[in-house]
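Good morning C.,

I know you're traveling, so I'll keep this short. The sequence:
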Amino acid sequence: MSKKKLYWVCQLAGWFVYVLLNLLFFVLQNPIDLSDLLIYTAWVPLGIGITHLFRTVFIWLHIMQLKLYIQIPLVIIGSFVNATLFYFGQYLLELVIHHASSQIVFIDSIANIINYAFVFFFWSLAYFSYHFLINYTQAEMESLRWQANIKEIELNKLKSQLNPHFMFNSMNSIRALVDENPSKAKEAITQLSNILRNTLMMEKNKVIPFQEELSIVNDYLNLEKVRFEERLNFKMNISSAAYAFSVPPLLIQTLVENGIKHGISKLTKGGEILIDASVENGLLQIVIKNTGSYDESHVSETGFGLKNSKDRLQYVFGESADISIRNGENNFVITELRFPKYSSI
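The tokens, ready to paste straight into the viewer:
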């Protein structure tokens, strides 16, 4: 039902019920004739006309956009004005229908106007409360849309940071192969083209299937394997349940790249990259181990990859996502991620 239709339905129903109750009390105390019935029936359009005029004036003066401490006195004053109009409207109906004038008693008139003022005040209270709730709901929705747009902008910003960073490292790996081993260079170019193709396709996606992310990681590690040769070894141990999850694009690749750049590449003998993925308590748990050491006093050295990943996890999964990095046994740095299945709701 539209707001306009709802307004008129409530107007008719509300005034009809009010008049019906007044007529019932009148019948219990007095005999009723056709003229009395006509007068009470005329109350309905009279009340609707006065309240609709009151509403029109308030909208025209933009009263509902004022502060609450200004609105309340205006509503009280308006209720008394409406009550006065309603009282004298009744008086005119008496004159027209009964064809007789009755003397206005000041005290009785004031008492009736006060009683009617309560009626119009409750009408105003119901009307303004409804619009307050509607406006509050719309403001909340606008706020949520604004927050969603901000998150979308931030995610796009993070993605734009990832692509140049990834490209720079990959092209360096291929450049080293061009003269030394052309066949391997061709293979590396094919792997890079696969990564770029997937990257272009996922540009508009917040998340991609975990299996696609692993395919990118595998191509990336093979590219790095060409550069580091026997100095780099990698292994993946993936649970079948993990493939039901989705991850932000290039998230795992960024962390693997971070481990190679700040860990293995600094070691003369190189090292290993181990990737484990399993599902625990409904959360996908990914453990990335790389040879090296993590110096917590110089976090800025690994700032880009880790901070970027933390931001993206928070934007996509909220508080339920977690990422941590620490030194483990056997000269390994351990990066752990936990996050639930992605929901677009």
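Safe travels,
E.
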